[in-house]
Amino acid sequence: MSMHQRSLSAAAGREKTPFEQQREALIGEIAMSFEQVLANINKLNRSLEAVITVGNEFSSVEALWSQFENVMAKDPDEGKAEGEGSDGEREHNSKREDENR
User: Fold this and answer.
1) What is the CB neighbour count within 10 angstroms for residue 86?
2) What are the boundaries of the region Disordered (predicted)?
């Protein structure tokens, strides 16, 4: 361990090589870039949360429009045809019963 401590103290006492200077500069740039990335990710997260909040506020409106769409999608003649068919059958059956008597 004493040799390791001596090499560290020797490195601290002497000037840094161009490689070490460049490495430290690049490490500093990388650290700043990571901080910017982290800040941008946090900003994106807040924006996504805001979008989700706005989307959730429209859920009741969406449900209402879906209900309206389902009502409008039903064929209006379908209900009349079923009702007339039932009534028509009843009338037809009652006429047959009258004829048979």
Assistant:
1) 10
2) 1-20, 72-101
